[in-house]
Each structure stands twice: as C-alpha cells, then as structure tokens.
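Hey all, sorry for the wall of text incoming. These are the two entities for the joint prediction.
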Amino acid sequence: MTNPIAPTTNRTETGVNPPPTSPNHLKPSQRMKIPRQQAIEQAAGERVRNFTEVSLGMNEELALQEAARCLECKDPLCIDGCPVSVNILDFIRLIMKKDYIGAVNKIRETNYLPAICGRVCPQESQCEAVCTLGMKHDPVSIGKLERFVADFEREVGLFTPPDIPVRRDEKVAIVGSGPSGLTCAAELAKMGYQVTVFEALHAVGGVLRYGIPEFRLPRDILDLETERIKALGVTIQTNFVVGRTATIDELFDEWGFKAAFLGTGAGTPNFLGIPGESLSGVYSANEFLTRVNLMKAYKFPDHDTPIRIGTQIAVIGGGNTAMDAVRTAKRLGAEKAYLVYRRSRKEIPAREEEIHHAEQEGIEFVLLTNPTRIIGDERSWVKALECQRMDLGEPDSSGRRRPVRVPRSEFLLEVQTVIEAIGQKPNPIIQASTPGLDTSNRGTVIVDEKQLTSRKGVFAGGDLARGGATVILAMRDGRLAAQSIDHYLNPADEAASSSTSLQ
Amino acid sequence: MPVKPKALPMYTIVSRRLLAESIARFEIYAPLIAKKRKPGNFVMVRAVENGERIPLTLVDSDVERGTITLIVQAVGKSTKYLLTLYAGDQLLDVVGPLGNSTPLTEGKNVVCIGGGVGTAELLPITRGLKEKENRIHTIIGGRTRELVILEDEMRACSDNVHVTTDDGSYGRRGTVVDQLNDLINSGETLDAVYAIGPLPMMKAVANATRASGLKTCVSMNALMVDGTGMCGGCRVSVGGEMKFACVDGPEFDGHTVDFDELMLRNRTYSDLEKMADCRL
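and here's what came out:
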C-alpha cells in the first residue's frame, strides 16, 4: 500500500512509483529553442490604480508551450530544489498530456497549497535556480505552471479531497493558521488525525491574509485553499489566542489534545529606534498592511478601518514586505512612493519579480540611504524623513557588503507617511505562557531537526522557529512537523510503514 | 427580559442596559473568555463584517453563565453602532482575554481613580484589590452627573467613595485630581494609586503623585488593530522605551509614560473618524 503522504523522492525505483512516459516527442535541442513563455500581466499604468492581481498567469496554450521546454532530466534537480519536494517532473509530464487535474493532484501529494505557492514562492532561488535548462537558457517557468494547473482546477471546479485511508483518534492542536500551520494541519488530517487550527485573528491565513497584498494573492484563492483544508475534516477556530484564551497546557490537560504544532510566525514588528517614530503617519509595515489587507482600509469609509497616506511616502527596507508596502501605498494614491534601502540594488533581498514589478509601477528606489530621523510638523504629523548616504564597505558575516555612513551627507526626503519594513520577530505570547519552552535570544522557539521543541509533544516551525523566512520554508517545516507528530503519536507504525522522512 | 445563556451562538448579547444616554452595559456570551478573565484584561471586538476591531475592557465575567461584561461609550462609528444593539443580537468577533492582568497590591492603602467611562475599566481592578484586602479610597468623576457611572458597584468594593463633577451637578465641583490632592494632603499614608480615564486625567493624576513618588498605575488606551502585538499601532513611550500597550500593558507606571506623545498619536484619524461617523 502506498502511503498518501510519502513524498516520492525515491525516483529511481520506477517499480514503486512509475513515472508517466513522456508525451513530448521534441528532441532536447528542439525543446531548448523554445523561449521561456511569459505570464500575462496587467499593465503597470492600469494596475497601480487597483488591487486586483498583477500577474494573470498563463493560459493553456502558454502552459503547454512552457511545459514542452522541460528536458525531463533523468535526475531532476528541480525536485531537490523544492523545500517540500514537489514531484515537478511528473506534474509537468501530466501537463504535457493535458491532464491538468492529475498534475495539480500530483503537486498536492506533497504541497497542499499549490495555488498559493504558484504565486508567492521564490522559484527563481529554488526549483528554477537548479533547472538544467537554466544552465544555458532560461529555466522552465515551474512556478507559473504550478499556478496554471491550480487555477485550471479552480475554474473547472474539479477538486476532490484526497482519500483518508486511516482514521485516528488523537487530537492535534495547530497554533496559527499561516502557511506552516495550514500545511501541518492538512498533512495530519490526511494521516487521519483529528486536527483543530487555532487562529488569533478573525480570518484564516496568517501572513497570507494580513501581510501579502491582494494584488499578489487574491483573497478568493486563499479562501478556496482554506476550504480545501476544511474539506479534509480540519476544524478552524478563529478568535482564539493560544496563550490567552487557553494555554498549551490547558489544551493538553483540559481539551484532550495529544500533540501541538506552534506556527505563530514572526508577527511583532521591529522599529529602527530613530527619533520621530511616535509621530502620526509612521507605521510598521505590519500595521500598514494589516489595515489594508485584513481590514480593507482601502475601501474606507465602506469599511470602517481608516488608513492615512500622504501624497509622498517612504518605505524603509528592502525585503518582500517592503515591496508589498510600497506598492500598496502607490495603489492607495501616493504620487511619490520611495523605497529607502541602505545597500545597493544588487543587495535588495526581495524577490527579483517583486523588484521588477515595483520598478514598472514607478516606485522610486532611494538606494544606499539610511534614515536617521523622522521630522514632524506643528500638529505632530510626519513632514520629512532625514536620511544619510551610505557607501558599501567590506562584506559582513552575511556575505553582503557592509553599508558605511558617508559623513556630512544628510538630506531630507519630503514625505507625509513613513512605513518601516525592517523585519519582524516572533510574537511573545506563546513563549510567555508555555513553561519549559526554550527560546533563543532572538525570541524564536528552538527546535531540533524534527521540529520538536523543548516541550514533549510540542513541535514548532515557520517564522516562529526561523525568525523570518519564506512561505515555502514555513510549509516545509509544517510538513516535516506533521511527520514527526505522527511518529510521536504512533511510534509503532513507524517500523511498519516505509520511509516517510523528507530526505 | 435577559436572554437565558444556554447553548447560545457565540458572542450573543445576553443583556443590555443603559448607564447613561451614551453609555451601555452589555453581557455577552463568550464562555472561554469568561473563564480566563482577570482584572485589567480586554477583548477586541468586531461587531460586523466591515467593522473595525476595537479594544474594550473586560469589566466583569460570570463563569457559570459563560458571559462577559463590556461597558461601551458611544464616541466613534463602531461604538455608536454597538449602542444600537440589544439582547439577542450577536457580535461577529470577540477575542481575548488580551493584555496583562493588573498587578494587585495586598493589604495596602490604595486610591482608585476613575474618570468617565474609565470607571468601568477600574471596577474589576478595584474588586480585585478588595479581594486582596487593601483599604480602598475611591474617587470617581465625570464632566457632569450623567457621566458618573457605576457608583453603587464602586461603593460595594471600596472603603469610601468620593464623587466629583466638573460642573458641580453631583458630588464635589472639580476634578478627581482636586480630590486626590486633598487625600494626599490629609496626611493619610498612601501606598499606590490606580487611575483610569481620559489621557489628560491620567496625566494630571501622575503629575500630582510624582513629587511624593506615590506609585501610580495608569491604563493606556492606544490605537490598536489586532490587539495581540502584531501591528505596533499601540506603541507608547515608557521610560524612554517603546512598549506595545496590547502585550506589554495595558497598564504602565504613570510616572514614566509619555502622555503628550500618545495624546497626539491618538488624534491621527480624528477627522477620518468624523467622516465615517457622518455616514452612520
């Protein structure tokens, strides 16, 4: 019997998991001649005036052309490049055969959120970075193909939840409904466990809901993926702050949970600590994005939560959150939207696609620049950001060249809104309310290679353990934790079943 | 007639009573929150789909009936909407209990000061102090007689109660600070002050106790979006350090809080709030 959750990493054992034979009759040299197909996009001038999705994905014709580029390597490196080991080769072959539902189900074997990953995963640094075709040509657009099959399934409405062969009595609590929690929940539900996800906010998705803007991840996509997790029998309890509404110990002792996964993310914003941060018009990117994404402040006053944006705004930082914030501000009507970053264009940590989109949308990059002070007017509102020019010195421990202050280079940027997107750290509520849960000096929960914390039966992953990473790495942790929880709750089965470890 | 809270849908309003023209007391079915509530805790409430999340102090709870008590003063669009609700209506979202519980002294001589609807937030703290056998001098005040609320409840858990009104329509004409100064000057040995009310009132109380170093605990009602430490909108400067009212507070040492800064920040949306309000 094949285990439905086992990743198909053992690709050489064709007898165990026979790959579909290639329907592509093109020779490798012919495949290499096909240019990388580009997804359809909303024009920049148009999209800066709305919150609908920037990339419209690929249509069937483009997807088939793109799939035909795949060299179908005997030893496909792309699968190793994927943190959750999606069987990319098999799913692309299924696209070639026009079996799009088969393709999305193939992805869902190891990744239960394909419509989300097809949109927000940094494929260029993962699967596509190691694509053999990419060594001499452009890599296969794996992310866009993933998105295509997920969107196809949604449009034709052919989703069927996977079979759950075994039913298990053990209750597992998942804390947080972000990418790690949802993935862990889905994997455990597929194994037959009784899973409840506890979410502090009134809506499901964690950072996918409050952080990532609708123009990158439409809310109906997120809602649909959530419904599909519920279709596995997962209970989602919103308005429940674990640590406050009930503690981990209470969930074990009074609610009957046998194991818990903590995936509460890194939701507490950092501030620079420069003068003027208490002025009106200064936001953390978290607050700014939460007001817009979760509370729909862009629809004020039809929605009650207000947002205030000047005609000139500055976002401080260079990560994906900074890109999201600055592009959101532009859509809210900012005439000048600056991204202030202390290193050069080359070091910006955001995804290349996001940087490119931001540039297209007229975001002004103020590079090699460090903010030193926020200046207010007589009503205590922001009127300018004082900055200093930077130079790049020797590389630091991260390998990036360290920014060095240029003396007497101060200048003023006239803005009415300042948004700080300089990183987040884990929310302290869980740690403070769970005795014996070891944390690092950065506030992250310490886990071993199986995602186990210092507390028996308590596992953790995603940004809570990593301190700030990507959606897909959070999903990888959630998936690994689900397997560890299974081993923890039913160790006897471990020997019986075949290898189910990730690597 | 109050609705019987047996197997009700979550966040059903069980009872509603007007305390003043613009202030109402609600009992809401929320058994999990009721079970965990401690003095000083608050909840975030989102009444309707397009509504804001607003922080409201947990005034009381009844574990048996599974209810929590909230007291709401109609000031903005969301709170005005809440006052249009009656027993049997349902709130969409209520989450909590949030914030740290108030550290309560034991067997001391303390002053509890409530201004306006702040008295509602003070009541559970005063009750907690009473349980810990403190001697309690209570001062409650309001602009006018109508806005002096919960006098009977405060009397029930205080050793003595003084009432002040700005216009002299009830109790002493003056402010709670005038009464506090008299108490300080009376030679009574006081150990701590708990003050909750409008920011200017708490600032004045903190200024009155600063010279003598009388420990003064104040509650920061800052702007919040999530209430769980995520947005940073509720940041306040305490002793020169940035704190979040939702997870580090809501109570802080009144002598180290920067009241002026918070008063200015709290005005950020005042014109937009007026605009939303006009559309009610």
